[in-house]
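Field guide to reading this record: the first block holds the primary sequence, the second block holds the structure written as discrete tokens, and the final block holds curator observations. Each block starts with its own label. This record concerns DMT family transporter, catalogued under organism Anaerotruncus colihominis.

BLOCK 1 — SEQUENCE
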Amino acid sequence: MNKQLRADMMLVLVTLCWGVSYYLMDVSLTDMGPFTLNAYRFLGAFVIGGLLSLRKLKGVNKQTLKYSLLIGSVLVFVYIGATFGVKYTTLSNSGFLCALTVIFVPIIEILVLRKKPQKKIIFAVTMSLIGIMMLTLKDDFSINMANLRGDLLCILGATAYAIDLILTEKAVSHEEVDAFQLGVFQLGVTGVYMLVMSFIFEQPHLPTTPMIWGSVIFLSIFCTGVAFIVQAIAQQYTTAAHVGIIFTLEPVFAAVVAYFFAGEVLTVKSYLGAVIMMAALFVTEIDFSGKKREHDEPKA
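BLOCK 2 — STRUCTURE
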């Protein structure tokens, strides 16, 4: 198994955690505000990650800290969009709109970076968009306009996350940037921002029930700490556009969790959409040219 394929499999596990996170966020938001929840998630992940890997964090350089500050700041907008989106719109709408990252990554790369995407990436992105629409939208493929505020916040989150993926790819391409340190310190930056805003806009408090405690702890450790550290490391061996396609599996996993824990049953159209999205992932893994992958090795 080559390095890009291993990285992609790691990112699939990250996506699984984020698919679970929609349900857990919905549960947690019944007890606390979005800023408070995100402060617990990111600061908890930062503290746990720091304590378990203190030696690896010593000797961090300015370049790593610079990108940690930049990417952590972008993550604030990602999670303002995603968390408030879940709060103010339907889970179906939020699942579709947050997954639009797969579309925004190549658009930003084309318009800002003048980077031409591979033909198979364009094909896979198109497949993913069709799959997302079939999985999450209504039978007439309409979005509930009554939830416009939440929908716009989800789009903000998806756009910010596309920027996050591109910045992370750029950061880990620098030899002096340590991907593990970047993954940990960006959590601390985001957590501090969220904590400040929780005191400004909310009344922070500890979780009030075992169910909420369990949800917050799982979100903090697996959906935040493990997820973002693994993402930073894995992006040494793959591209932002590739990662965006993998992350379109997020609403698929969210739908599976909703089926088992919330009793939601999908339509045949939705299941077909999930299959198309899985097929899009396989398209990205096929080497149609027969040439060696350019991201098999990490930084030059």
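BLOCK 3 — OBSERVATIONS
The two ends are 21 Å apart (CA to CA).
Confidence is low (pLDDT under 50) at residues 292-300.
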